[in-house]
Design brief:
Mean pLDDT: 96
Order of helices and strands: EHEHEHEHHEEHHEHHHHEHEEEE
Helix content: 25-40%
CATH topology: Anaerobic Ribonucleotide-triphosphate Reductase Large Chain
Strand order of the largest sheet: 7-6-1-2-3-4-5-9
Structural class: alpha/beta
Oligomer: single chain
Radius of gyration: 19 Å
Distance between the termini: 36 Å
Low-confidence stretches: none
Largest sheet: 8 strands, mixed
Number of helices: 12
Number of strands: 12
Shape: globular
């Protein structure tokens, strides 16, 4: 088990306090903590000045831009190009802005696209998962997320969730801010695969009929765990299928047994959304994906995140942080 992220939600105007939070996160040396993060509020005012005061280079990453789709989107890539520790999200809750959002996705450099998410939801989301995680809170506060796929498979999830909850409370107390809870999502990292988890639970290779039920059952199990432990779940708290972060998912995409339509079907049963998928650069296709994503989100009434990596149509794309990512087939 790893604590995937310790995340501070920063709503204060005091940039000296931001520097202090960054130092406090940097000073967490426990090996169980993988990443340290700070999320800024939606629609941040005086962005240029604040960005210049962010203490980068200290092993902390920041979600700094959270804009509504009706706002100005063209400058997002410019901001993110200044530092690879910066992330951004766009809130899409009205179909009349689909064209604008599709143009943004189409325009992104593939490396920057990994740090931009489209959030289909009624409002901005407070979660430690970047890029969508924003400080949509009243006070400075803290939450965490985990990588615990192996423990979930081995029926040890209850113990590690309880540990993460207590550990996060301790860190929150040491920093001196409110503790919000845990995003209990099951998220993969390469060999620790949620794709494999689905295959093991269903007894069949992805994608097979019956696996929608498998995903729904896993999400039900997550809910039961946090309810029994009296953990406050925030954000998504669902199974996640980010293709470029999961070796089994990448292999299934590469061999063509998991296609875009099949992956989207899985998201209808409350997988968090279409995440980290390489899709050929086609603006009309992106519009269709956004329309269908809005329809799914409206039906299931859960936050839905999208990260599309525009690709060339040549079968795969290379990213410095991830290596070779297979392009998903559009069938």
């Amino acid at each position: 088990m790893k604590i995937r992220a310790i995340t501070i939600f920063f709503v204060s105007e005091d940039m000296d306090k931001l520097a202090r939070y960054t130092d406090q996160l940097q000073n967490i040396k426990d090996e169980v903590v993988w990443t340290k993060r700070i999320a800024f509020p939606p629609e941040l005012k005086d962005l240029d000045r604040k960005v210049n005061q962010i203490p980068t280079g200290k092993g902390v990453i920041y979600s700094i831009i959270h804009r509504r789709a009706k706002g100005e989107l063209r400058s997002i890539a410019d901001f993110l190009s200044t530092d690879k520790s910066f992330y951004a999200s766009v809130l899409l809750n009205d179909s009349k802005y689909i064209d604008d959002v599709a143009k943004l996705v189409y325009s992104l450099d593939p490396e920057i696209a990994t740090r931009v998410a489209i959030l289909v939801n009624e409002e901005f989301l407070t979660t430690p998962y970047f890029p969508v995680g924003s400080a949509n809170t009243i006070n400075d506060s803290l939450s965490s997320s985990l990588i615990y796929v192996r423990e979930f498979e081995e029926n040890r999830a209850e113990r590690v969730l309880a540990f993460a909850d207590e550990y996060s409370k301790k860190i929150s107390k040491e920093i001196g801010i409110r503790y919000l809870g845990i995003d209990a999502s099951l998220s993969p990292w390469m060999e620790e695969s949620t794709g494999r988890l689905i295959e093991n639970h269903s007894g069949e290779k992805m994608f097979s009929f019956g696996q929608l039920y498998t995903v729904a059952s896993i999400n039900k199990r997550i809910f039961e765990l946090v309810w029994r432990l009296k953990i406050t779940p925030i954000g998504f708290s669902e199974l996640m299928l980010p293709v470029a972060e999961d070796n089994v998912l990448m292999e299934r995409v590469r061999e063509g047994s998991l296609t875009l339509s099949q992956l989207m079907a899985l998201t209808s049963v409350c997988v968090a959304g279409l995440d980290m998928i390489a899709v050929k650069r086609d603006i009309e296709l992106y519009k269709k994906i956004l329309r269908d994503s809005m329809a799914i989100q409206f039906t299931k009434r859960r936050p839905y995140g999208i990260r599309i990596i525009p690709s060339t149509g040549e079968g795969e794309i290379y990213l410095k942080e991830y290596g070779k990512i297979p392009e998903i087939k559009i069938i």
